[in-house]
Amino acid sequence: EVNLLESGGGLVQPGGSLRLSCAASGFRFNEHAISWVRQAPGKGLEWVSAISGSGDDTNYADSVKGRFTISRDNSKNTVFVQMNSLRAEDTAVYYCARGFYTKFDVWGQGTLVTVSS
Amino acid sequence: QSALAQPASVSGSPGQSITISCTGTSSDVGSFNSVSWYQQHPGKAPKLIIYDVSSRPSGVSNRFSGSKSGNTASLTISGLQAEDEADYYCSSYTTTRIFGGGTKVTVL
């Protein structure tokens, strides 16, 4: 079964850092781009970042550029996002999703990140 | 990059058809056929229901259909059912990805 599982969310103070992980199973991991998409409480979806299957290409939304870094370890079927200089407006459920260029066809269950003092 | 424009809400009675619009620009919806649609029930992760403007993933009901004209994409739900009540989001490729603001579908 194709599956994505996020972890690493939690409560962090403004200006702090957090690293989220997305563990994949059930498909050829290195053949697929993986994205992070977030959803602030009561709000819509916002694409955050994506990484190609090889890890050579990365993309970021302007709202996180310079603060978030996406990476992947294909030997462990895992994608990471390192989030630094966190702000209150980064509070959201963070989903990892398979895909970027055409569609997001598999989604994880999400992990909640709360930025608050 | 601005979000794609969707109506905040659309409603219909069981059995009726409804259409949700998704308006972008010539830089996103108008330039790429990578428009996709997602259904999200409360507290759940989004689910892909349409990709590449009008293609349906395996297992998605054929009551869902997509189209595009110029800078506007549309999702039509025919034979509306109670289980269709959810939030719907469009998304387009534009060197990055953008989403619409979401449309709440209510089944009367």
Provide an overview of this structure.
The complex is a heterodimer of chains A (117) and B (108). Chain A has 117 residues and is mostly beta strands. Chain A is built from no helices and 11 strands. In chain A, strands 2, 4, 5, 6, 9, 10 and 11 form a 7-stranded mixed β-sheet that branches. In chain A, strands 1-3-8-7 form a 4-stranded antiparallel β-sheet, with no helix packed on it. Helix content of chain B is 0%, strand content 44%. In chain B, the strands form 2 sheets. In chain B, strands 1, 3, 4, 7, 8 and 9 form a 6-stranded mixed β-sheet that branches. A 3-stranded antiparallel β-sheet of chain B has the order 2-6-5, with no helix packed on it. Chain B is globular. The model of chain B has no long low-confidence stretch (mean pLDDT 96). The A-B interface holds A 35, 37, 44-47, 50, 59-62, 95, 97, 100-105, 107-110 and B 1, 3, 34, 36, 38, 40, 45-48, 51-52, 57, 87, 89, 91, 93, 95-102.
Q: Poorly predicted ranges of chain A (pLDDT <50, ≥5 residues)?
A: none
What is the molecular shape of chain B?
globular
Q: Report the order of strands and helices of chain A.
A: EEEEEEEEEEE
As a percent range, the share of helical residues of chain B equals under 10%
Give the class of chain A from helix and strand content and strand pairing: mainly beta
Report the span from N to C terminus of chain B. 35 Å
Strand content of chain A is: over 45%
Largest interface: A-B, 23 and 25 residues
Described by its quaternary structure, the protein is heterodimer
Question: Quick check: average pLDDT of chain B?
Answer: 96
Number of helical runs of chain B?
A: 0
Radius of gyration of chain A: 13 Å
